Amino acid sequence: MSQTVNAVVVKEKNAPAVVEQIVIPDPGPGEVVVDVLTCGVCQTDQHFQQGEVGDNFPYLLGHEATARVSEIGEGVTNVKVGDKVILNWRAVCGECRACAKGDLKYCFNTHNAAQPMTLTDGTELEAALGIGAFAEKTLVHSGQCTVIDDVDDSANAAVGLLGCGVMAGIGAAINTGEVKRGESVAVIGAGGVGTAAIAGAKLAGATTIIAVDLDPRKLEKAEELGATHTVNSKETDAVEAIRELTGGFGADLVIDAVGIPATYKQAFYARDLAGRVVLVGVPDASLTLELPLQDLFSRGGSLKSSWYGDCLPSRDFPMLVDLYQQGRLDLDAFVTERITLDKVQEGFDTMNRGEVLRSVVEIQA
């Protein structure tokens, strides 16, 4: 039978994120109900709150989560009751034109739960990224679950960040940017995603890793996670500084983890000839970019966008968890503070002040 639980909902554009009671239906075919353990406070949830993703209010927020499977629907075979999982928003369909070509990371029809969760008055909720994990329980498609049963409970908050921001950053470097051993990498924006990109560049063997930001606190954390050089772009021209640190040429790869025209132009001009630019910062839908067409032609190289770090959760989550358990990827460093479900709005405020890499909501023991 359906269950009523506490969850964080935003009912209209720019309304506060507040705890409400919601109704979780029994899982249908291919669906599972999970008890949420932890969920990171991600910028994307605030984009939902501000109406920048859509206007399908009310939204059930939260998507960067670890959970434990409590119920499974008909036909579910990839997880069982009791499994600990990381939730993801790329449950590939296996049937669309991208999947048919073998490009599963570009799946155009990723699975979500078919049934809606609702408020107690029956109002249907739109779950953020098909997950809605700022909740005691949530309903997802079984393909949104990657099993991590060998992870100690003390690590739940850290590994759950692979569900979005950390995976986006690491994947931007390794999957989209294809960092090679010995290359130079510059990352513009040293928030959670940018710092994860720095960690990814280090994992891939980059030898010059330049972090660019306006905030000296973020630059200090970037150094802890792998940056070999830092540039405070409030004090120094970022493009000139990156070129100076790379022999006058520019970096092999520049990652824009901010997503505004000014930082993208910095990334474009701070790369070497035939270098690569990766955009992983999520831009506001109202923004436009203007670049001289001659510069696009004459500089060569590649300009890419990285959506979820071009990841396959079934492949990448276990690999990164293994690296974490080996001590080669410090996911714990991304967990700045642990908060309760009723503090999500305060978590957004803390994030906006640049005081955290991630606040993590701890929901279940």
TrEMBL record:
NCBIfam families: mycoS_dep_FDH. This is S-(Hydroxymethyl)mycothiol dehydrogenase. Keywords: Metal-binding, Oxidoreductase, Zinc. Its cofactor is Zn(2+). It comes from Nesterenkonia lacusekhoensis. InterPro entries: ADH-like_C, ADH-like_N, ER, GroES-like_sf, MycoS_dep_FDH, NAD(P)-bd_dom_sf. GO terms for molecular function: mycothiol-dependent formaldehyde dehydrogenase activity. The keyword Zinc applies. Residues 17-361 form the Enoyl reductase (ER) domain. SMART domains: PKS_ER.
